[in-house]
Design goal:
The structure holds 2 protein chains of 2 kinds.
Chain A lengths: L1 H32 L7 E2 L4 E6 L3 E8 L3 E9 L6 E6 L5 E4 L8 E6 L3 E9 L11 E12 L2
Antiparallel strand pairs in A: 1-9, 2-9, 3-8, 4-7, 4-9, 5-6, 5-8
Chain B lengths: L2 H21 L15 H13 L2 E5 L3 H10 L21 H20 L3 H17 L8 H9 L4 H21 L3 H22 L9 H8 L1 H12 L5 H17 L3 E4 L3 E5 L4 E5 L2 E4 L2 H19 L1
Antiparallel strand pairs in B: 2-5, 3-4
Classes of the chains: A alpha+beta, B mainly alpha.
């Protein structure tokens, strides 16, 4: 019976901790990322994940020619700077926030609709021997009709 | 109460409290002295991180789909929406998830055309689907009351629609139900495509702005398939993959070539313009095939 109890207990703990961390991440996204969209309408989609120092994430999305867009990418304070790059279908880099002092937002519009790829990377504190920092990174899109 | 059970229960509660409190250390970074690991371990951790790359497939949300239809200058037609009376028919998780997406697209469409009473009816239908899926606090009575109070304020309405959709999708993602979250998005995307194809005037096909928006959806079909593929093994998702594959076969008949993108910064609007040219071609015959396929899929969702 003991192994069964241990597994049961471990499962409860994992579920409880995951649920708690996810809820924290959602609250962070709403509190810290959503306001960055300012006067753009949030599309309603939710993209957030716990990322670790040095970890990369990718996001694929179609953007349309009739809209003005703002992308907001925000990481928790305990993380080092969040880098993001936007690439077209031919892997050409269209924007990198590293050249803009790690700006959290980027505003853009398109002459023709395109599928773009966002590459998000948590940079590093470069502290050898330390446990890599981890925290929530939220990605949100806002839009408005092109004027 | 049985003593062994009491001790077990106490242990669980104690451990849960420990986990919760250790997880509460948010905010600024703590000093690292107690968490030193050797370099070897860190290399191994970083290797794991490299392999654990996260990939998000972002389909247009129902609100964005509705906005695209409006931007193409299309008219509003209530008869194209899924009647709210159908909401009672959906009892399986798959049907409720698909129709949460569908009703959210319909209510977004109604809101953009200032169809105030319809908007409230559709918000209630979406709430019924969210409640059925056990999504807590996705759409609350206070959201509906706020809608009624701000019925002439389109900005507030859009915020409420966007917020309620985010509540649903984040709840599902956070509670390890990504397959259900994906199904909701599929429902919304198919509904947007269905409404668009139904609104095309075949006498005004060439140069029709709505037709070009429909062609643009070809860019999202692979995202849709990848999204479903990442949830493969879920029986509802597997069934949807077959239907979406049929749709992809039709989209493959449409030509959509774009030139390389040139970013140019517009100083006046402080916005980057991504310049590119696009060449598209869709014959009326292929459009009719697309319309028929989308209608079949959508009708299978709303029955």
């Amino acid at each position: 019976m003991r192994p069964v109890k241990t597994i049961f207990l471990a499962a409860i703990l994992v579920i409880a901790q995951n649920g708690y961390i996810n809820a924290q991440c959602k609250a962070f996204a709403k509190r810290d990322c959503l306001p960055e969209l300012a006067n753009y309408t949030h599309d309603g989609n939710y993209h957030a994940a716990i990322l670790v120092e040095g970890e990369e994430a990718e996001l694929y999305k179609t953007f349309y020619s009739d809209m003005d867009y703002r992308v907001a990418i925000v990481g928790e304070d305990k993380l080092p700077a969040i880098e993001f790059r936007i690439l077209d279908a031919n892997k050409n880099v269209l924007y990198s926030n590293k050249e803009k002092d790690f700006a959290k937002t980027w505003d853009f519009k398109l002459q023709a609709s395109q599928q773009l790829k966002l590459v998000i990377r948590v940079s590093s504190f470069n502290q050898p021997g330390a446990v890599p920092a981890s925290g929530c990174v939220a990605i949100m899109f806002g839009f408005k009709l092109k004027k | 109460m049985d003593r062994k059970f009491s001790i077990g229960l106490f242990s669980i509660v104690l451990l849960l409290v420990t986990v919760l409190f250790t997880g509460c250390k948010g905010g600024k970074k703590e000093p690292q002295e107690e968490m030193e690991v050797d370099i070897k371990d860190k290399v191994a951790i970083l290797q794991d991180i490299e392999q654990a790359e996260r990939i998000f497939q972002a389909l247009p949300s129902p609100l964005e789909s509705a906005m695209l239809i409006k931007s193409a200058g299309a008219r509003f037609e209530e008869k194209l929406l899924n009647p709210v009376s159908n909401a009672n028919n959906y009892v399986t998780n798959k049907a409720m998830a698909l129709n949460l997406g569908i009703y959210t697209c319909d209510l977004s469409f109604a809101s953009l055309y200032e169809q105030t009473q319809l908007l409230i009816d559709y918000m209630n239908a979406a709430k019924k689907m969210a409640d059925g899926l056990g999504i807590l606090k996705a759409i609350e009575q206070q959201d509906i009351d706020r809608l009624e109070e701000n019925i002439n304020n389109s900005e507030v309405i859009m915020d409420i629609v966007s917020q309620t959709f985010m509540n649903s999708s984040s709840y599902l993602e956070d509670n390890d139900q990504p397959a259900t979250a994906a199904i909701v998005l599929v429902g919304g995307w198919i509904e947007g495509l269905y409404i668009s194809t139904q609104l095309v005037d075949m006498d005004d096909f060439k140069g029709n702005k709505l037709v070009s928006k429909i062609i643009d959806q070809k860019l999202s079909i692979d995202i849709l398939l990848n999204l479903l593929n990442s949830n493969k093994g879920n029986p509802a998702v597997d069934a949807l993959m077959g239907q979406v594959a049929k749709l992809k076969n039709v989209f493959d008949k449409i030509r959509l070539d774009t030139s390389p993108v040139r970013p140019e910064f517009d100083q006046a609007s402080k916005t980057t313009v991504l310049k590119s040219e696009v060449k598209t071609d869709m014959t009326p015959e292929v459009f009719m095939e697309l319309s028929k396929t989308v209608t079949e899929i959508r009708n299978s969702f709303v029955i």
